[in-house]
Amino acid sequence: MSETGRQRRRWEGAAIAAVAVAGFALAGRPSTLTAQQPRDAATVRPAATDAEPSSADLAGVENLSRVFRAAAKRVMPTVVKIKTTSGPQALGPDGRGKPQVNPFEGTPYEDLFDDLFDQGGPGIGIPRGVIPRREGMGSGVIIASEGLVLTNNHVIEDADEVLVELYDGRELTASDIRSDPETDLAVFRIDAGSPLPAAALGNSDLLDIGDWVLAIGNPFELELTVSAGIISGKGRALAAGRRASFLQTDAAINPGNSGGPLVNLRGEVVGINTAIASNTGANQGVGFAIPINLAKWVSEQLAERGVVERAYLGVGIAELDSKQAEKLNVGRRAGVLVTDVYPDSPAAKAGFLAGDLIVAFAGQPVENPRQLQAVVERSPPGSKTNATILRDGERTTLYVAMRALPKAFGAVAPSRRRAPGPAQSGIAGRELGLSTADLTPQLAKQLNLESVEGVVVARVEPASVAAAAGIREGMVILRVGKTAVNSVAEFEAALENEALDSGILLLVRTARGNRFIALQRP
Question: What is the DSSP letter of 424?
Fold first, then answer.
């Protein structure tokens, strides 16, 4: 679309919005009583007037303005502009990775593959397979007076040079850059020759939906901009930070705000602005910030040891739905469902079982996997903590000796093509709409599930109960209800003790781990 077309769309949108507002105002205007309508003095309200606002009204608004101003002025001297540069970079055929050249160069096949390795173009002076020098911009906040700056990892990632502009206009070069891509956070140091103003860090756990916040940063290369809004959501999951649980706000966050502080009305930093949800690339009222409590924990570890050491439990987890809660006899949906317990893990040694519902960890209630992950990761390795679980409807406490997360833990092995196997199904299996086969050693190897015992789903009938519940070919059924199954005969026998009308709970294994699936006749 041309720039003129885009302008026309924006004007049309503004006109539509104006009509909508006008319509709302008209709809809200008191109607005039007609001659046929009875006049009841008790129900007739005086028409709206354009009277001047009272002194009390103005005082309330001005007090809020003073609070905003005080909060902004307290934090603004600690906010920095970050400018990054990256030199020319050679790309692989997928546009990523390390420098590569056409492996067929100099052969008769060179022309066939040349386009895959030609990231430049004629007449623009860019060598084949190379992208030009890049520049970026973001924000950061000084969290220690000796010059420790907190920002997003994506602001400084892959940068050859990071320049930092202070509130007083001085420009310094960042050094000792340390980052944690798992939470999209990074810290670095600047040497100003004297102590710098540092932001006060608040407590993000005290935030609630509806609380006022300010977003401060450098959007669109504009100098130090402040926008206001509220906390509109908590506990959001984003791909931007795999191990972060985000705050959602309608305070305007735009490109260039990344890494800047989200501030409460006391002038305390309660989040690090990180991402937006937008169809245009600009603010549409849905922005996300990393809670400062997580950012404090990560930044302290990065500053002290250069890496983030996380503890782990060693379980596969999932959210619990109502059908699963009923079949597991836990009677509630708040909690985290254990779908798998990994051998030789802290969870295995503590006695966790698949089907347990974790409702509290280290004394803190947990309602979803993100909450549990956050509490577990911040537990000091070597410490011993407790977990409250529901098992068969009974509350139990397990004690866990925490260990550091192994580097390779949780890596998903690449799936392999499933070898064909003889499909078998009895009357019960046909009622579900699936056929199964024994999991032979050869088939287990093809599925990368050598250590698993169960029956493999060989076929799922379209529009069946199994298909509707999410059963797919290649899954391995480990349990029917509470009964482990290691053969088709055991699977069929276990189904005979279950009723599809009341629901059947299956524990299945996929390439990504275990999960519970509840099957029930619609």
Answer: B
Q: What is the pLDDT of residues 318-347, one digit of tens each?
A: 887 777 777 777 666 678 989 889 889 999
What does the DSSP 8-state code read for residue 67?
Answer: H
Domain boundary among 267, 284, 305: 305
Which of 257, 254, 237, 256 minimizes the C-alpha distance to 246? Answer: 237
**Token pair for 376:** 């577990």
Residue listed under structure tokens 């987890």:
317
Residue 264 lies in a domain: yes
Give φ, ψ of 196 to 5 degrees: -110, 155
Same domain for 296 and 322, yes or no, is: no
**Domain containing residue 341: CATH number:** 2.30.42.10
Could you count the other beta carbons within 10 Å of the beta carbon of residue 280? 7
Q: What is the C-alpha to C-alpha distance for residues 70 and 66, in angstroms, rounded to an integer?
A: 6
pLDDT given for residue 13 in this prediction = 41
Q: What is the tens place of the pLDDT at every residue in 46-102?
A: 555 566 777 777 777 788 889 999 999 999 999 999 999 886 655 554 555 444 445
State how far the Cα of 303 lies from the Cα of 179, in Å rounded to an integer. 10
Q: 292 lies in which domain range?
A: 204-305
Nearest CA among 492, 459, 114, 470 for reference residue 323: 470
Q: Are residues 265 and 350 in the same domain?
A: no
Residue 318 and residue 261 share a domain: no
Of the candidates 238, 272, 287, the residue with the CA atom closest to the CA atom of residue 80: 272
Q: Are residues 446 and 508 in the same domain?
A: yes
Is residue 484 within 8 Å of 451, Cβ to Cβ? no
Query: What are the beta bridge partners of residue 273?
Result: 289
Count of structural domains within the chain? 3
Residues annotated as catalytic are 154, 184, 258
Within 13 Å, how many C-alpha atoms sit on residue 484's CB side?
6
- Rounded CA-CA distance 136/325 in Å is 49
